[in-house]
Amino acid sequence: MTYVAEDPPRIGWIGIGRMGYQLAARLLDAGYDVAVQNRTRAKAEPLAELGATVVDRPQDLADRDVVFVMVSASADLEEVTTGPGGVLTDPDSAPRVLIDSSTVSAQASAQVRAEAAKRGTALLAAPVSGNPKVIAAGRLTIAASGPREVFDQVEPLLNTLGRGVTYVGDDEVARLVKIAHNIFLGVVTQSLAEITLLAEKGGVSRAAFLAFLNDSVMGSVFTRYKSPALVNLDFKPTFTMPLLRKDFDLGLAEARALEVPMPLASATAQLVAGAIGAGHTDEDFATLILEQARRSGVTLEPENVVVDDGLAVES
Q: Full-prediction pTM beyond 0.90?
């Protein structure tokens, strides 16, 4: 069965947030014909200067070969696909392939997959790991699940978005992979906040402690690129606390269903909820360090030093 009508395929993109904008721009830079749609049209308009066609409704992308979706929650995915004016509701056409890069529940994904199949549309679940700066550095990674033959056809397109695409299996398993990834993200960040505050209260600057950690075997790409925020208290959002809480909720629900105890994740979920209750809703989730400082009796100040985040742009 042929899923992609043209080579290169004509692309649609639904959801022009911080991530969606950068990824759609990357496809445009690679020379693809891209049409974009966003609930707030003004956020998509700047992409027209890069060559994108801006449309008003998801349904206006129904004639595209491949349509990406990147929205915030399960209800949003259902709205832009099967809701009024959704991309799967045009009576005359439907995309050959729908690639959903949202972080949503497996149940919502399965429902959309079933509806897409009725229209002859194949669905790939393809959640991503990264943020706009990671995208700019060419280091975004993707986990994909769904029909293997469809993945094989669109893999070159997915590779345009970053440095690594991993096929993880059938149906909705990529959703679980991404949710497990984001739980780890939260647990590691909370742990990083705890040990950094321990060192600071003992007389070590955050910059010095994190420089040591990042050069050790315990350092990672993640600890390095979060270090500037922790050192200089710059919490410009890459991923907010409410989005992290949503992923903990999804992950802990899966853990209950699969009978997998997750005591560390459960404890971190409560700390994330506490940070939201303290008002940390619009900043980056690295503000976990502010709540850790409050509980530790420490008043944090920016250290105002240059910290390498390790994200030099790859050519």
A: no
